[in-house]
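Extended Data, panel c. Modelled sequence:
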Amino acid sequence: MPGIDPELFVSDPEKQIIEELICAVCTFVARDAVTCPKGHQFCRTCISQWLKCNSTCPSDRSPLRLSQLNTARYLNMIVQKAQVKCTNGTGDSKCDWTGPYGNKEGHNKCCLLKEICCESCMENMQRKELNDHLAMCPKAKVQCDSCGTNMEREDLDKHLRFLCAEKMTLCPLQCKESMLRKDIMKHVLTACGKRVECCPIPGCRTMVQSQAEHNMENGESHTFLLLESLNQSRRSSVLQGRVHGYSWTVPDATVLLQSSTFKTGQLEWCLMVLPSDRHTRTHLGVFVKLNDGHPTLANVRVKLTYGRLTAMFDHQLHFKVGQIKGWPRALLADLMDRQPGADRLTVNLMIQNFLD
């Protein structure tokens, strides 16, 4: 850092003295002044840099070493007490503060005309403009009044409209009821008067809003379908539908993943992998989900391969649309960790439907 600009000093008697305290290297008033044995004064930083490349005094070229320099305490005291002006502001709006040079740094920290930078958006402005700027700065951190989440101001509107769990919102099925956004799923699945679900009676496949009313209107046909389903399952433990196969290579067994959908006749399925969290769940789980179609009874056989580790499961399961069934304790996570070089999980599925 070079010396102090002489133009900062405003007191005429002192200014004449100050102008005598010029650093011979930078030609400004010496900052943190030091003197050589012959009395020449310099900025401590300036002369230190000079002596890295030279071995003589800048004033008279006499030999000089860094160890020969002495702190000029009296000169520094004069500089610190000398009156200076504030240079903040432009045009007609300039700061009129004057005071000892030693107080200038403290004044700069509170001067309303000092140019500063907004820490959020990095825009430059005078300190007096900062509060008004922060009230509308798009990058400033704000807190959602509903849920307490911190975010940038420009993201607040999107958060309130689509994401805030504590914000009141209308039912997406347009039943005219309002609720907290975090309760929408429970409302839609259990309480909404306009919810629609597939009749779980095997072979019915009717989409209904009220299962109770639907059962009353179709009691006789439902009884027949249930008896038929029971008789079919009793005839043989081996179902008569086609056997379908599907293979899925899981790229990362440490995250929750869902496979692409696949069809077996009129039914649409997918596979899901739930990884261990090493605390509450010590096993990796594998599940089968019926995405679309009619309720069905199915033989499901799954083979898992991870390195040299394998596991097989074979069950007869009843599914209705949206149901997820499977094996939450399919593979022990500790055993998976011991498979050298294994990085992908392979899931081979064979499924035989009661009705294709």
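The chain has a mean pLDDT of 86. This feature is highlighted in the accompanying rendering.
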